[in-house]
Design a protein that fits this description.
The chain is α/β, with parallel strands linked by helices. The chain contains 10 helices and 16 strands. The strands form 2 sheets. Strands 1, 2, 3, 4, 5, 6, 7, 8, 9, 10, 11 and 12 form a 12-stranded mixed β-sheet that branches. Strands 13-16-14-15 form a 4-stranded parallel β-sheet, sandwiched between helices. The longest helix has 17 residues. The structure holds threonylcarbamoyladenylate (TXA) and magnesium ion. Magnesium ion (MG) binds next to loops.
Length: 318
């Protein structure tokens, strides 16, 4: 059921149930992080492997000490600048955080979401919410309550509606090595913005068999339709001319106007607007009856880099 009833959502969560919640990045599949029953249900619903840990959502920076310890100075700087917001910090976990949540690691991922509904809900709870993105493992992330409903119609009793997500792609994840920040996942806060606060930071290699954030598997966010990431749209349309093509364009393109199925992420080429639209556009193209989706690569700067990261994983072969 899609609802705006916060009290109902609270009751379900207090009784170890699962609720899909809106955040400013994407919708999350939330449960009491301190309840083994709830956490197990999250993994089960999402069909997520247990080696892939969950992010905790807390109501304010003051609650950080209840889940993390030995917090580096740079982490405080980043949290003060970006929370509430789309930045997740991976920190040493407090002993009481279960191995189930962290997949046996001694670190925990945590953020304060910047969404009025999520914050209001957290205010009414005395536990953090563990919440991965509310999509089945490997598929496109949800940015509306309807996307979540499409995935979990049969299995999820409550989807809390908070409208379309303002950011539209997941949080940026930063971990620490010897107290130095290191980028684990590109996301809604650009690396440029982060470097303004803590200086130049290291990035984990883009493709790795043992990623620092275990969820950064090569194939992720994937449509069911055959999808290609391309730099020259006109050439690619020509190459697939025997097929029914769907286009995902960064900005308006006068040369592709006769293509019937096209989604333009931002008419004017604005990165924030493109991020907001990218998953919804992929969902629509995937549900249309095109044979192939051609996705235009964005300029590799700012949030463009984060969107490209998602698009690359969406086209990766299984
Ligand atoms: O924007 C977001 O971050 C959304 C909203 C709902 O908050 N959540 C989200 O969760 O994207 P999820 O589970 O889809 O992605 C979380 C990522 C995974 O790749 C996971 O491996 C990584 O965070 N992660 C979680 N705990 C970690 C840890 N202790 N160390 C390294 N990576 C961790
Ligand atoms: Mg996810």
């Amino acid at each position: 059921m899609i609802t705006k009833n916060l009290a109902l959502a609270r009751d379900v969560l207090v009784q170890d149930g699962i609720v899909a919640i809106p955040t400013e990045t994407v919708y999350g599949l939330a449960g009491n992080a301190y309840s083994e029953t709830a956490v197990k249900q999250i993994f089960g619903l999402k069909k997520r492997p247990f080696f892939n840990p969950l992010i905790l959502h807390i109501k304010s920076m003051e609650c950080l000490h209840s889940v993390a310890k030995e917090i580096p100075e740079a982490a405080f700087k980043l949290a003060s600048r970006f929370w509430p917001g789309a930045l997740t910090l991976v920190l040493k976990k407090q002993g009481h955080i279960s191995d189930l949540v962290t997949s046996g690691m001694d670190t925990v991922a945590v953020r304060v979401p910047n969404h009025p509904v999520a914050l209001k809900l957290l205010e009414q709870l005395d536990f953090p919410l563990a919440a991965p993105s509310a999509n089945p493992f490997g598929s496109i992330s949800p940015t509306t309550a309807q996307h979540v409903h499409h995935y979990f119609e049969e299995t999820l009793s409550i989807i809390l509606d908070g409208g379309a997500c303002e950011k539209g792609i997941e949080s940026t994840i930063i971990g620490f090595e010897n107290d130095e920040p290191i980028l684990y996942r590109h996301g809604a806060v650009s690396i440029e913005e982060i470097e303004k606060v803590v200086g130049k930071i290291k990035t984990v290699p883009e493709k790795s068999d043992k990623p620092k954030a275990p969820g950064m598997l090569s194939r992720h966010y994937a449509p069911n339709t055959e999808t290609h990431l391309v730099t020259n749209i006109s050439e690619s349309i020509h190459a697939f001319s025997d097929k029914k093509i769907g286009l995902l364009l960064f900005k308006e393109n006068s040369q592709t106007q006769d293509c019937l199925f096209q989604e333009v992420l931002s008419k004017t080429g604005d990165f924030d607007e493109a991020a907001r639209n990218v998953y919804a556009a992929l969902h629509r193209l995937d549900l249309s009856d095109v044979d192939v989706i051609l996705v235009e690569k964005l300029p590799d700067i700012g949030i463009g880099k984060s969107i490209n990261d998602r698009l690359k994983r969406a086209v990766e072969k299984e």
